[in-house]
Amino acid sequence: MTDTDTTVSGRQESTVEDVNDAQAVIARVVENVEEVIVGHHHEIEHIITALLGRGHILLEDVPGVGKTMLARAVARSFEGSFKRVQFTPDLLPSDVTGVNVFNQKTEAFDFRPGPVFANVVLGDEINRAPPKTQSALLEAMEEQQVTVDGESHDLPHPFTVIATQNTVERDRTYELPMAELDRFMKKLRLGYPDTDEETEMFDRMVGHHPIDDLDSVATLDDLRAARDAAAGVTVERSVREYVTRLSQFTRRHAELGVSPRGGLAVLRAAQGRAVLEGREYVIPDDVQTEAEVVFPHRIRTSTDETTPRAVVENALESVRVE
């Protein structure tokens, strides 16, 4: 933070007042994450634009490519609370949301919040838990609250879920239901690093791990203000209509197409992309960049010959920008 920051009750206030300020904060966060993560600049940007768009992220890939470390690096770049949940077959919904415990002194039940009560929640290998446990996140991701024994409890603001998914041991995992997939703004894959990137990663991590020295470079107030700046980015009617036509194209060319929630997600992500570029308005290029990671996991095709990603690519090639 800069020397101009003021402190109220020991907490630094944000100096983010417009898109340019928000862009500067985001640039610091991206640079900070890259102190730990090598060779995934575009994926880091996608996570940041999802944060700006008030979305959740699903990281899907083989083990050992840095999914969990990427989530931790992003979380540590902000001065917020971070909780990690290791999803396992015996994990219960109450292990995620929390539970009411009887207090003998007061002769009443006290709510003990679970790990979901944090600004950034990492759900590690989320598809290892059965659907009943996975569903514990549905209300939290959509409504920013959890309900236990009929009583609702608000989650911290901001609240973001970054989940990882194991794609190798299919016989030991559970498929995520579409209702849950649709609540993730983006689904990203990291892939293996190239030769130079992998060697540089070894140079950084063979001894002392750089994440142990990673400091936050932005406050929660910075993130809230940057989100407000993104929400204020102008989206012209022509851009909104373009997203509608893209969504309708996927519905015509797939068994299950993009939902209205998916269309809204791509618009919010595009607003975040505009902030990343220092613009106060969304352009079609923002939509096209974000649609590539916002749309595919919401689509189901009836044949193996056509993949969801191919449907999105065809939509971007066929639907005109008017």
From TrEMBL:
Q: Where is the AAA+ ATPase domain?
A: 53-194
Keyword Nucleotide-binding listed? The answer is yes
SMART domains documented for this protein: AAA
The record's annotation in InterPro entries points to:
AAA+_ATPase, ATPase_AAA-3, CbbQ/NirQ/NorQ/GpvN, ChlI/MoxR_AAA_lid, P-loop_NTPase
One Pfam family from the UniProt entry? AAA_lid_2
The entry lists its GO molecular-function terms as: ATP binding
What are the record keywords, sorted? ATP-binding, Nucleotide-binding
Q: Which PANTHER family match?
A: METHANOL DEHYDROGENASE REGULATOR, MOXR FAMILY PROTEIN
**Protein name as it appears in the record:** AAA family ATPase
Organism this protein belongs to? Halosimplex aquaticum
Q: Specify the taxonomic lineage.
A: Archaea, Methanobacteriati, Methanobacteriota, Stenosarchaea group, Halobacteria
